[in-house]
């Protein structure tokens, strides 16, 4: 009986350790996943919507490409600065909390606290990741529209490319985050369609009434 009891205790302890390690891994992965997936989706949607809005009122491929490239540069810089400020604020809060805990323990630094210090978020890394992810997403509509001369075909190809990319980003984010695949993919896809349709429709309306 004693052996069985010890076995159950050991197995329960191993389960707790494995569960804790799994939670830590997903938490660390979530920081990078959030920046990468959000950055890529923002780059794709903002650039595609901008280019479709320009295409709704002007049949000029150069204007679409220039506006899309400007959106890529401006959006990547905005994402980088926003992510840097956000993560730096989070870092300040976590560092202050660690200092409070250290003062309460008379300056003693325990092993788990040292691990927490090593796992603190890096604002610069987060900013670079967000900017690169945004640029990757923004390149999808730019590449889709950059080599097509006919206006109608260019708009359709860009919409199809954006749709495929939205599905891919949604599925990748769901798989890495262990979220429901279909629900996450449809959420990203429908949201992207609404954003592009709203931009195209509003610009088409403004172009029709001469604003």
Structure description:
The structure is a single chain. With 211 residues, this protein is an all-alpha fold. It has one domain (38-209). The protein is elongated and about 70 Å long. It contains six helices and no strands. It is a multi-pass membrane protein. This is Vacuolar iron transporter.
What gross morphology would you assign? elongated
> Helix segment count?
6
What is the succession of H and E elements? HHHHHH
- Radius of gyration (CA) equals 24 Å
Helix residue percentage: over 70%
Roughly how many Å apart are the termini? 85 Å
Q: Which spans of ≥5 residues are poorly predicted at pLDDT below 50? A: 5-25
* Strand segment count: 0
Structural class determined from secondary elements: mainly alpha
InterPro entries: Ccc1_fam (IPR008217)
Keywords: Ion transport, Iron, Iron transport, Membrane, Transmembrane, Transmembrane helix, Transport, Vacuole
Subcellular location: Vacuole membrane
Function: Vacuolar Fe(2+) uptake transporter.
Summarize the structure.
This protein is mainly α.
Layout of SSEs?
Elements (H helix, E strand, L loop, with lengths): L1 H56 L3 H44 L6 H8 L4 H23 L5 H27 L3 H29 L2
Question: What distinguishing features does this structure have?
Answer:
89% helix, mainly alpha, 211 residues, elongated
């Amino acid at each position: 009986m004693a052996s069985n009891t010890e076995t159950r205790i050991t197995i329960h302890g191993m389960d707790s350790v494995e569960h804790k390690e799994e939670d830590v891994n997903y938490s660390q992965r979530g920081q990078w996943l959030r920046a990468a997936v959000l950055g890529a989706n923002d780059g794709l949607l903002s650039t595609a919507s901008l280019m479709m809005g320009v295409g709704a009122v002007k049949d000029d491929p150069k204007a679409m490409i220039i506006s899309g490239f400007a959106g890529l540069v401006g959006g990547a810089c905005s994402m980088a600065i926003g992510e840097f400020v956000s993560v730096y604020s989070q870092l300040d809060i976590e560092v202050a909390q660690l200092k409070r805990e250290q003062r309460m323990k008379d300056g003693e630094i325990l092993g788990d606290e040292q691990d927490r210090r090593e796992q603190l978020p890096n604002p610069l890394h987060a900013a670079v990741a967000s900017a690169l992810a945004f640029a990757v997403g923004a390149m999808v509509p730019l590449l889709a529209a950059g080599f097509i001369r006919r206006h109608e075909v260019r708009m359709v190809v860009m919409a199809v490319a954006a749709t495929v990319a939205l599905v891919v980003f949604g599925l990748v984010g769901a798989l890495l985050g262990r979220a429901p695949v279909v629900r996450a993919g449809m959420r990203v896809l429908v949201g992207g369609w609404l954003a592009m349709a709203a931009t195209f429709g509003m610009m088409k309306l403004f172009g029709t009434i001469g604003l």
